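Q: I'm building a small set of examples for a reading group on sequence design. Run inverse folding on the following structure and report the sequence directly after it, with nothing in between.
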């Protein structure tokens, strides 16, 4: 793959924190939700934007995507040149590393851009412009294809708790909450991992606050199911939550400790 010339990458250097398997929950959701698009794509290129001080997340993304899309390729993009140089020894068939930022220095239009823990250091009012820029780089929709996917969100250091927004070329689509159920005291524990677009909106009067409040109430009402395990309690809570909120996924995903909700239901009011 030929890289675009990059003189001034767009964006800021992140802390670079990374750990093996940190993004496994996000990767597995991507493989499930977007695997069909990747299989059908003429150029199934995925970008791991801001992979950090070590290349583990890009290496793992390639392996997980190839279980559902054998032709998938991954390009790790980092704004810090030393990190790119450190990752180059890990390059192999289907995996490359490039110096760059939000301009996404690859040829063509990627089928996937994953930006995990990248926007945490930015101001909330910068998020919309970054989303718009990244969505404009995605493969366009057409025919039976919905186009490329941008997955932007945040997780803790060892990948137990995630929240991410999925966006298409047209803009945001859904918000997914994912967790290791054995570590969860209540669903609102996930509030600390809300992406930048939502984390400051977890206050009374905002939809995301109401959602987490209702989720906690459903979790409390499902307490009798705890005797069957945290998974059964989570699934019952989500089933009850879906009566009032536009949950888009099924019990197959709930069993994984996930729930996905339409973006419009949680979007900031102002």
């Amino acid at each position: 793959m030929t890289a675009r010339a990059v003189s001034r990458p767009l964006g800021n250097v992140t802390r670079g924190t990374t750990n093996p398997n940190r993004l496994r929950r996000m990767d597995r959701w991507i493989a499930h939700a977007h695997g069909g698009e990747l299989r059908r794509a003429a150029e199934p290129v995925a970008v791991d934007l801001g992979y950090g001080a070590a290349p583990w997340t890009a290496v793992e993304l390639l392996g997980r995507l190839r279980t559902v899309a054998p032709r998938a390729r991954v390009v790790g993009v980092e704004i810090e040149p030393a990190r790119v140089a450190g990752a180059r020894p890990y390059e192999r068939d289907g995996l490359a590393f490039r110096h760059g930022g939000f301009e996404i220095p690859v040829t063509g239009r990627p089928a996937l851009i994953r930006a995990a823990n990248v926007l945490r250091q930015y101001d909330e009012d910068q998020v919309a412009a970054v989303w718009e820029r990244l969505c404009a780089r995605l493969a366009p929709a057409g025919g039976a294809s919905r186009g490329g996917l941008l997955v932007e969100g945040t997780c803790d250091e060892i990948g137990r708790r995630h929240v991410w927004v999925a966006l298409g070329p047209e803009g945001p689509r859904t918000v997914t909450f994912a967790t290791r159920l054995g570590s969860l005291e209540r669903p609102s524990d996930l509030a600390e991992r809300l992406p930048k677009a939502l984390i400051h909106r977890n206050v009374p009067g905002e939809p995301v606050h109401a959602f987490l409040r209702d989720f906690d109430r459903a979790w409390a009402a499902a307490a009798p199911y705890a005797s069957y395990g945290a998974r059964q309690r989570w699934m019952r809570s989500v089933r009850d939550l879906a009566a009032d909120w536009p949950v888009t996924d099924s019990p197959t995903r709930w069993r994984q400790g996930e729930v996905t909700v339409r973006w419009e239901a949680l979007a900031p009011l102002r």
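The two ends are 41 Å apart (CA to CA).
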